Amino acid sequence: MANTIILDPITRIEGHLAVEITTNATTNVASGVECQGKMFRGFELIMANRNPRDTVLLAQRI
Amino acid sequence: MMNISRRQFIKYCSIAAGALGLNATDLMKIEKATAATGGLPVLWIAGQACTGCTTSLANSVYYQTIQELLLLGQASNTLELKVHETLMAAMSNEATQQTPAITNAPFALVVEGAITPTNGYCQIGSYAGAGSENMSDVVTALAGHANCAAILAVGTCAAFGGIPAAAGNITGAKGVLAHLGLPYRKKIINIPGCPPNPNWIVGTVAYLLANGLKMPALDSLRRPRTYFGQRICNTCDRFAISKSGGQVGGFLGVSALSPMRVTQPDKIGDPLQNIPGGLCLKKAGCKGSRTKSDCSLRKWNSPGFGQVGVNWCVGAGAPCQGCTQNFFPDGMSPFHYIK
Fold first, then answer.
1. What predicted TM-score, i.e. pTM, was given to this entire model?
2. Can you tell me the ipTM of this complex?
């Protein structure tokens, strides 16, 4: 038997994070933890084919 | 903690009223609103954001500590931050389950960051009930709530899409108005900027409170006219100096053939002290002539209540990038010279 605890959202951080913890139902020992970054903007794709002098001023706002 | 005497408070009120373009009657309304308890409850939802707007708000002179920002919103009668993912203590279900208690009275929805309609690219937690983890669903549900008095799109991403919506993106990011559509247009106030000045955010909420949640005067891009009423060049020191005969060697002494090469560095002025002896930065790519905001008057990093800020981009020798306009960043590119 396994219990699953989902913490979503994790607050007091920058960005969106969720944590999924799997525990043993009898011993309450965590057997697995998964962290999920839940936001994607694709900055690398936006930077592609762009004037390098512009990328300095855009990538600083990541 | 900073204690404010009555004299300081009245002074602050009159300065705030001046900054907001209010008359004496409105000023009395502000005092009355400030005397009452309770600010405007705010649900601050962050989407595809960098949290820079939050950092800017936390830098406001209205609050000296993070406790004041979170707890004294009621006392200072500005933003009563009920839900703010980056600042609130509650986590997980405790955070998301507060929504019904807030939405039973008039509240303001503040959106920071762009909204992607594609499921999975931005999930923020089920603030609008179970099964609504997607940012776009949460915004749609809260914006359509009967008690939603105003939707403040804070930052250029939330207002117009901004950098997440720049060319090359695959998430389909867009601003609040583009996401919600025209039926919501009357509720939306755009406060663009990358990031926006904290006084623009707090001042807009203070105006809403002082005027019974009536919308301030807005321009065609739904920006408050008080803050985004005129082009930056109109009040820029550098522009004025250059126009009044200080144009030695042309703008900034920058060669038009090699824009990156500053041939007369002494004409930039003193970036640390904002000595207005510097010349116009247009040839270095300044977009001030196409950008509306009061940066040149209000400036940034204000040292105290109602005081003009320390400096601003152009004052520090950095050309304006036009971050308060709807076509930032693609329409303002290249940043370092004028095409």
1. 0.83
2. 0.90
